[in-house]
Design goal:
heterodimer, A: mainly alpha, B: alpha+beta, four-stranded antiparallel beta sheet, two-stranded antiparallel ribbon, 7 helices
Chain lengths: 413, 250
């Protein structure tokens, strides 16, 4: 490994650590009253991205490797830029809102491209997965500490390190669980290591579930159940054998004590209790109707139809909507109906790539990461009916970082 | 794999930045034309766009002192939960207004309400109505609170009168009256506190009355229109190039 490669790997570790631990610092207030929050990873990715660009230009090369999803991402960003510029020109959108919301979205894709371009060996991916395992566990320990000490730092329940909000915390742990647990199922379990080590790794990869319960987020709890269902459906698709059944049983055995521990120690987890009879689906649906659909989504959708004549084509610009509680509605208002279909093109491209990786790869790590990306994407699509997961910084950073890892592994394999 | 197939395969995996520059150079006329068209449209828009009138009113939300029984500490209880006022306003809880934007700046008891219409008079009139509707509700709450306090004071004063009569009665019989005097002392303190609470009621008020400003596209609109033209020009250049290269296959 040469010095340049070592620096790149180190930068990826720092980036992952910043996503996992960085607190946010207020840097101003937007015109809609929202605070502009800066995190260490924002500064880091700006420096790293800029250095990568300078390094590339200085090398005299003109050819750059085209990452998977390059075209859909470019089109989606192009549509975003078009909608922002149009609405700025028509003075429909305030400068600060358009700028910061669009910049935030660009940043997630920079994470993805940076991770993809920096990884040249599968060993780097393995190293990064191990670091993520460690970072996730430190966060889980912090949640555990909050539970036993009673000093809950989250909005409703416990918080992740450097985070406070209920949804960002829950979604952060949810995505970490999805990716790491899938890697465990398809990669760690196949390693030639002792059974004790495998059990240890199983507990480690499963532990983020405690963070999801601790956050007391109803939405994330519902999606966790959906993710469980998807994870095991994919596992059965790939391996219809006794091992899959055993893993399923092990999973049930692990979930019950974690959940009962959270119920005893997190005061506001009572919110999650409300939707435990989820198998009837009725309480969940009623909760969604009362707290999201009738309150915000429906009135906002009706109002959006009266906004402007160019809404169907160009939308009202990124950042126009404060909180829509629905990712699809946000896209519809911000970039217009026709352009918002491009969002699905991007999502289907991700699903297609990860499905191919999952069904055709022979390498455990590639299958695990692909299954994780597939499950995470479907889970985010599901959650998008009740919130806007693709613009939440903490969880989106994790999602795009792992998307970069997945595509890099698929390329190398 | 022949040369053209290999080139195509490479194109799928790589992007040559020189290609981008070459295409931009080759199609510079389209790019320039659309950039200029954007600028011209921006200039037209700047001069011809109709004005909108944006009005702002900032309300300071009042309340009254509330004594926490557990800690004995006083805290201000607002007439309404400030963070909910913005939502209630949007839902039409105070009255039927057009789409207004209301925000509660962080860590303040202020509500900033913004409205934009095509008419200065309409903006002014609606914002004045909103201000009046919210303040009248809060004034009513303040009045209700005052009445409750007055009733409590009257009740305490009546009780004190009774106690004073009892003291005279007991003193005439030569019995102890210290406890009753202590009760009166405590009640006087309570009355004083209630009087203070009455005068301390913080009224909601408009700290910035409806101020209406004309909103027209600024110079920046021309710049953005130019940038938009440039973006569309670049897209058109690449699309034309792609179309030319793939004409046979299409």
């Amino acid at each position: 490994m040469n010095f340049k490669e070592a620096i790149k790997i180190l930068s990826l570790i720092f980036l992952a650590a910043a996503i996992a631990f960085s607190p946010s610092f207020p840097a101003g207030i937007l015109s809609n009253g929202k605070i502009i929050e800066i995190r260490i990873e924002d500064i880091l990715i700006f420096i790293l991205g800029f250095s990568l660009l300078i390094g590339f230009l200085a090398s005299g090369k003109t050819v750059v490797e085209k990452p998977p999803l390059f075209i859909p991402i470019l089109i989606w960003l192009g549509i975003g830029l078009l909608s922002v510029l149009t609405n700025w020109a028509f003075a429909n959108l305030s400068l600060d809102r358009g700028f910061f919301y669009f910049l935030k979205e660009c940043q997630f894709f920079v994470f993805y491209f940076y991770v993809f371009w920096c990884i040249k060996k599968t060993d780097t991916v393995k190293l990064l997965v191990n670091f993520w395992l460690f970072f996730a566990f430190v966060n889980v320990l912090y949640v555990f500490y909050q539970m036993i000490s009673g000093l809950q730092r989250g909005e409703y329940g416990t918080a992740a390190i450097g985070e406070w909000g209920v949804f960002p915390t829950g979604a952060f742990f949810l995505l970490l669980f999805i990716f790491l647990f899938n890697i465990f199922l398809y990669y760690f379990l196949q390693l030639n290591i002792s059974i004790i080590k495998k059990i240890g790794l199983g507990i480690l990869t499963f532990s983020p579930v405690l963070g999801v319960f601790g956050s007391a987020s109803k939405t994330n709890f519902a999606v966790l159940l959906f993710a469980f269902f998807l994870t095991f459906s994919f596992l059965f698709l790939r391996k219809i054998n006794l091992k899959a059944v055993l893993v399923f049983v092990l999973f049930i055995v692990l979930t019950i004590p974690i959940f009962s521990f959270a119920l005893k120690n997190v005061h506001d987890v009572i919110r999650v209790k409300e939707i435990i009879p989820v198998f009837s689906l009725k309480p969940l649906w009623e909760s969604y109707l009362n707290s999201r659909f009738n309150d915000t989504i429906k009135p906002l959708f009706q109002a959006s139809l009266e906004f402007s004549a160019h809404l169907p084509f160009l939308g009202m610009g990124k950042g126009y909507v404060g909180e829509a509680h629905n990712q699809y509605l946000r896209n519809f208002i911000e970039v217009g109906f026709i352009s918002s279909l491009m969002f699905f093109v991007l999502i289907f491209a991700i699903i297609g790539k990860s499905w191919r990786g999952f069904s055709k790869s022979r390498d455990g790590l590639a299958i695990g990461l692909s299954a994780g990306l597939l499950t995470a994407t479907l889970a985010l699509l599901f959650i998008s009916f009740a919130t806007e997961p693709f613009i939440v910084v903490k969880s989106s950073s994790v999602y795009w970082f792992f998307a970069g890892l997945t595509m890099a592994v698929l390329k190398l394999k | 794999m022949n040369y053209s197939e290999e080139k195509r395969e490479n194109q799928l995996k790589e992007v040559d930045l020189l290609d981008i520059v070459r295409i931009a150079k080759k199609r510079k006329k389209i790019i320039l034309a659309l950039f200029l068209a954007g600028l011209v449209a921006g200039v037209f828009w700047y001069f011809l766009a109709s004005s909108n009138y944006q009005g702002t009113v900032i309300l300071k939300i009042g309340g009254f002192d509330r004594l926490a029984e557990a800690t004995g500490k006083k805290s201000l209880e607002y007439f309404e939960n400030i963070s909910e006022i913005a939502e209630r306003l949007k839902k039409g809880a105070y009255g039927d207004y057009p789409e207004v934007e209301a925000v509660n700046p962080l860590n303040t008891n202020l509500i900033e309400i913004n409205l934009e219409t095509k008419s200065r008079a309409q903006t002014q009139e609606i914002l004045e109505r909103i201000e009046m509707d919210i303040l009248s509700i809060h004034n009513q709450k303040a009045e209700d609170r005052r009445q409750v306090i007055d009733q409590e004071i009257i009740f305490l004063e009546d009780k004190m009168e009774d106690f004073k009569k009892d003291i005279s009665f007991f003193m005439a019989r030569g019995e102890q009256t210290a406890l009753l005097k202590l009760e009166i002392y405590n009640m006087e303190k309570l009355v004083n506190n209630l009087e203070k609470e009455k005068t301390n009621i913080l009224m909601s008020e408009a700290i910035k009355g409806p101020e209406v400003v004309e909103k027209r596209p600024g110079y920046l609109s021309i710049l953005f229109a130019g940038a938009l033209g440039l973006l569309v020009g670049l897209l058109a250049a690449f699309f034309t190039d792609w179309l030319e290269k793939n004409r046979k296959r299409i």
